[in-house]
Amino acid sequence: MSQLPRTLGELRHSRFAKEGIAGRSVKDELRANLICKIQKKETLFPGIVGYEDTVVPQVVNAILSKHNFILLGLRGQAKTRLVRMLTTLLDPHVPYIAGTEIHDDPFNPISKTGKQFIDEMGDETPIGYLTPQQRYVEKLATPDVTIADMIGDIDPIKAARRGQDIGDELTVHYGLLPRANRGIFAVNELPDLAGKIQVGLFNIMQEGDIQIKGYPVRLPIDVMLVFTANPEDYTARGKIITPLKDRIGSEIRTHYPAVVEQGLAITAQEAWLKRPSALELRIPKYILEVVEQLAFSAREDKRVDKRSGVSQRLPISVMENVASNAERRALRNGETIAVPRVLDVYAALPSITGKIELEYEGELKGGDTVARELIRQAVGIVFNKYYEGVNVGPIVHWFDIGGTLKLDETVDSEFMLTQLTPIQGLMEKVRALGLGVSEPEPVRASAAEFILEGLYAHKRISRNEESAFASDGGRNKTERREQRTEDDEFPPRDRQRRKYN
Questions:
Q1: I want to staple 357 with a disulfide (CB 3.0 to 4.6 A). Which of 92, 305, 337, 454 is the partner?
Q2: What pLDDT does residue 489 have?
Q3: Alpha-carbon gap, residue 316 to 332, rounded angstroms
Q4: Phi, psi at residue 475, to the nearest 5°?
Q5: How does pLDDT run across 69-119, given as a tens digit for each residue?
Q6: Average pLDDT, whole number, for the chain?
Q7: Residue 194: what pLDDT?
Q8: What pLDDT does residue 369 have?
């Protein structure tokens, strides 16, 4: 920064002027830097998973075409994150006339203040620099947003202090859009803007002139406009005025991960799983797949509102809760390794029910019931991946002849294995999950419990409302829940038990 030109005279003889960097429009800058990245085969938007062959090429085309564009998609589809990453295509530093509110280009000032600075100081005009982050302005559209917020307003206090006429341009207090001059201006949830605000947007996009309290100001600002919206609001409810839609160059549709593997990559990247702890947190792959499949199943379920969508935040939050429940159990039982079980996924219901909007049929059943059925469905799908064609008959037979088992999420792995080991053939089948007999007890206990939950998901064994499980023939013997002691930290509604007969 110390070597950057500090006056207009120095700037005229610097690389900014010689290489044509100063005075270049934002869209030309984005286009030039994007071309360089493509030629160098660099990753354009690191951290954006699943859009490599769909959304990203369309965004690239829009930037190369110097278009303002809109991202249409349901919640949790990384629209805002993608928009914010456009700053990676901006120059590290861009010069502006220091002291100007709208960051005037030193070679082409548009505000009266900027022009006065150059007229009065000439080559001694001070120059400041903007970083990419300073050149990004974001606004969440709400119905109460005003023209003053977006465009600007007359500031009577400024006029009084300077002794200027109220109609002078120097009395204008600029809004967000002019202050985004020479940068990127993003509007989230565009349909929520009032119609008159939308008119102000397309007018400045196309003609570059605005009116502030009846005072016309010619303000050809240099800005890249990017919008996000829900497709339901954008297309069906008529909340976007036609002239504004007509002036948006590209309309790009986002989407949820197409396959579970993409969802797993996103969740692994975003979930807080590498946490400081005295425990080793070891999450089996099948648990990760169950949590991710849960989101996929919810998106396809007819009881879940498709217009609202199921955010990718759901598996991220669920995975964090699942890990925390396993961590809590391991700490309570003095274990050194925390390994999540399917029981922990059921314990994570609070992070599921708040993220799905239900249709009428789902509302009748209730959020908890729908969530539990979605977990069961997800377990069944993942179970098939590992155990399709594997003979699990001996395990089912053990229950059919009257075997009894009761599992509790709070018990330690050693005790759980003493319950699971007598089941004929059960511990042998954990090998299908890629595990050996030398694995730690928490790992083997989690794997064996996953097999039983998979059998339940496929109705090879059943379970009643009191968490009692029975054989496929229905010969279950209900067993009374143990009484909680006063010092038990697990509340009854949080405590997950499974009883197999």
A1: 305
A2: 42
A3: 25
A4: -85, 65
A5: 999 999 999 999 999 999 999 999 999 999 998 999 999 998 888 999 999
A6: 86
A7: 86
A8: 93
Amino acid at the residue 190: L
Q: What are the tens digits of pLDDT across the range 151-162? A: 877 766 665 566
Environment class of residue 225 by beta-carbon count within 10 Å: exposed (0-12), middle (13-18) or buried (19+)? buried
Phi, psi angles (nearest 5°) of residue 364: -65, -40
Give tens-digit pLDDT for 173-211.
Answer: 788 988 999 999 999 999 988 888 888 787 777 766 666
Residue 59's pLDDT is 98
Neighbouring C-beta atoms of residue 472, cutoff 10 Å:
15
Residues in the chain: 501
Between CA 75 and CA 233 the distance in angstroms is 12
Please name the helix (run of DSSP H) or strand (run of DSSP E) that holds residue 463, with its range, or none: strand 461-463
What are the helix and strand counts (H, E) for the chain? 22, 17
Say if strands 280-281 and 250-253 run parallel, antiparallel, or are unpaired.
unpaired
DSSP state for residue 126 in the 8-state scheme:
B
Give the pairing of strands 215-218 and 172-174: unpaired
Q: How many CB atoms lie within 10 A of CB 108?
A: 12
Q: What's the rounded Cα separation, in Å, for the pair 291 and 218? A: 55
H or E element in which residue 281 lies: strand 280-281
Contact 341, 447 (CB under 8 A): no
Instruction: Set out the domains of the chain in order of their start, with CATH numbers.
Output: 8-253 (3.40.50.300), 260-500 (no CATH)
The pTM assigned to this predicted structure is 0.86
Q: Are 157 and 199 in contact (CB under 8 A)?
A: no
pLDDT value for 363: 87
Print the SS3 string covering 388-409: CCCCCHHHHHHHHCCCCEEEEC
List pLDDT tens digits, range 455-501: 999 999 876 544 455 576 644 333 323 333 333 444 444 456 666 65
Tell me the pairing of strands 69-72 and 250-253: parallel
Q: Phi and psi at residue 322, in whole multiples of 5°?
A: -60, -45
In terms of phi and psi (left: phi > 0; alpha: psi -120 to 50; beta: otherwise), the region of 334 is left
Cα distances from 188 to residues 26, 80, 251, 262, in angstroms, run 20, 7, 14, 25
- Looking at residue 169, what is its pLDDT? 64
As a whole number of angstroms, the distance between CA 407 and CA 414 comes to 12
Residues 6+ apart with CB under 8 A from 370: 301, 303, 304, 356, 358, 362
Query: Which H/E stretch holds residue 137?
Result: strand 136-140
